[in-house]
Amino acid sequence: MQEKPWLKKVVIMSIVGVLVGVIFSYATYIGVEKTAGENFCASCHSMQPMAQSYGLDVHGGNNQFGFKAQCTDCHLPHNNVANYLYTKAKTGINDVFFEFFTNTSKINWEQKLKEPNKFVYDSGCLKCHSNLQQESLQNQRAFLAHRAYFAKTTNESCVDCHSNVGHKDLKEFIKS
Amino acid sequence: MGVIFLLVIVGSASWYLSKANKTQNQVVADNPNVSLNNSNLRYANIAYSEKITLSKGKGVTKQAASCIECHAQKTPAIVQDWSKSSMAHAGVSCIDCHGVSKDNPMANQNCPGVKGTNIYVSKMVSPKTCAKCHPNEVKEFEESGHARAAFHLALKPDQGLIAHEDMGAPEYKDAVVLTGCAQCHGSIIKMGPNHEPTQGTWPSHGIGNVYPDGGVGNCASCHFNHQFSIAQARKPSSCATCHLGPDHPDIEVYNNSVHGALFAAHGDKWHWGSPPGAWIPGVDYDAPTCATCHMSGVNGLQPTHNVDMRLKWNLWAPISKERTGGYETAAFEYMKTGKLTAGNPLAGNPKGPQEARKEMLQVCASCHTQSFANNYLAMADKQIELYNKYAHAASEMINTLEKKHLMMKDPWADPAFRTYYYMWHHEGRRMRQGAVMEGPDYSHWHGVFQLQQSLRILQAIYNQRMKDGKIDPNQIGGVGMGE
C-alpha cells in the first residue's frame, strides 16, 4: 500500500484538535462553574447587600434542605448555551468595568429594583420550577396564579410579581 | 479544529435545549387539565364565584389557618364574607394578600398574632398584590383613566377649591379631602408612626389610590372587600358610589334610561354571577348595566378593565375632544419614576376613537339593529358638538375678561367664573353624558336647557363689565344654577 503522508497528518491533527477542544471545553466548563456562585460574585464589595439578603432567602439555602440556587441560575438566561455564554461574558465584562472604574456607591440600587426583569431571566426560574407549567386545577394556587403567564395573556415576567425573590428584604440591606 | 469541535458541542446543546423546551410546551398543550385556550382560560377562576363550598382551613397553610381562626373571633364579618368568595374557594387566604415582606414600606407587626415572628403584614392591599393572580385585569386598569384619579386630585385640587372649603383652617383640609374627594378619586397614601397609614390619607375607597409600595389603583372600589364579588361589581350601584350627583349624574342618567328601567323591573331575576366573557345578554340579563357597555365581553368583544376602551369622546373636560391619546400614562410614569403627572385626559382606545365607537356599537348590536344604534349615537355626537359651541362661546368671554383684568381675584366669589364653572363642570357634563347614555331628562332639562340659561347670564355679566370697564360686586350669577 502506498503511503499517504497527508492522511497521517490529518489523523494527528484531528487527535490534537479533539484533545485541544476537550481541554478547552473543560476549562470553559470549569471557568463557568467557578464563577457561577456566591463565592465569586460576592467577592466584589458592591455585591455585599445582595449576598447578605441572599443568605437569608429560601433560594440562598434558607430552606429545610439547605439547597441553594446559584447566582447565575437566576441572573443568566437558560434558554440555550450560546445565549448563556454570550450573556455571561457581556454582563461579566460590564460588572468588572463598573466595579473597577466607577464609583459603585453612587449606583441607585433601589431604582434598579424597579426593573428587576432586566437582571433576572424567566428561563432561569423555569429551569427549576418546570413543574409549574404542568400544574392543573388539583393545585389551584399554583395553577390559577400562573395561568395567565403560561397562557401568555400577560407580559409580566416572574420577578414582576415575585419582587426581590432570591434576596429576602433586599431593600433593608441596600439602605444600610 | 478545537474551535469547530466546541462549536459543534455548543450548537447541538442549544438545539437539544430548545427542543426540550418545545416538548415541554407540547406536554402542557396536550394536558386536558391545562387548556391553553386563552378566552376560556383567562377568567375561568372567577367562574366558581357562585358555588362556594370551602370550609375553613382547606388548602390553606397553618399560619393562614391561625389568622382565620383569630379573625373569626375578632372581626367575624370579614371572615364570613371571605369564606363566600372565590378567593376562599381557590385557597387564597388572609395572609396571601395581607402578608408582605419586611422591606415593603407598608409592612408592620402590629397584629398581635404575628408580633415577634418573621411574618409581616399590611392592612392595605395594593393592586401589586392582586396582580400576582390577575395581571391582565390590573394592567388594563392601569391603562385606563381610572388609574389617573388620585394624581388628578393631588396635582390640581380644583382651582384651590379645597382652600376655600376649609375656611382658611388647614387642619380641616384633610377632612374635606378624605371624606370627600379621596373617597372617589383615591388618595396618595402616606405612612406615619408605627408603620401605619396616616389619618389624613387613609382609609380611602377611591379607585385611584396610590399605595406606599408604588401600586396604583384600588380593586376594592368595585369588588368590595372581602367577597370581591363579580355580581356586585356588575350592578350599577357599585359604579354609583362615585358616578352620581350634579357634575356627572351617571346613575341618575341610567335610571332615567330604558336600560335602567329594565334593570329595575327584572334585575332581581338576572344571572349576575356568570363568568367574565360569558355573561350573555338575552340569556343572563336583558338590559345592559354600566359594566355591560364599558367592560364586559359582549358579542365577541373581550372583557376589559380599561373602561376607556369603548369611549369615542372625553365628556368631562371643559371642551369635548375625541379620545386620540392611546393608553393612560400616569400610573406607569409613577411606577417607573415616582413622579406625579397629570396623565392623559384623552386616553382611550389605542386604535383610536373610531375603533372605540365600533366596539361600543358591537355591544349595542346584541339587542339593537345597526341603524337604531348608529342613528342614536350620531345624534348624541351632534349634541356633544353643540355643547362645544356653548363652551367655546363661554370660554371666549372669560378669556376676554381675563385679558382686560375684569375677573375677580377670588374665582369662587366671581359670578362670571362661577357661571362658567357650572356650565362645563355641571350642566355641560349632564348634557353630554345624558346624551350618549340615553338619559333624556339629563340631556335636555338638566343639560342644554340650563346651559343656555347660564350662557345668557354670563353674557349679561360680560356685557356689563365690558361697558363699565369695572366689576360690579353686586352682580349675580352662577349660584343656584347647579343641581
Automatic annotation (TrEMBL), chain A:
InterPro entries the record matches: Cytochrome_c-type_ET (IPR051174), Multihaem_cyt_sf (IPR036280), NapC/NirT/NrfH (IPR024717), NapC/NirT_cyt_c_N (IPR005126), NapC/NirT_cytc_sf (IPR038266)
Main location: membrane
Binding site for a menaquinol: 88, 95
Organism superkingdom: Bacteria
Keyword Transit peptide (UniProt): no
Topology of this chain in the membrane: Single-pass membrane protein
Record-linked Pfam families: Cytochrom_NNT
Modification(s) after translation: Binds 4 heme groups per subunit.
Sites where the protein binds heme 1: 41, 44, 47, 95
PANTHER family noted in UniProt: CYTOCHROME C-TYPE PROTEIN (PTHR30333), CYTOCHROME C-TYPE PROTEIN NAPC (PTHR30333:SF1)
Protein name per the record: Cytochrome c-type protein
Organism name: Desulfurella amilsii
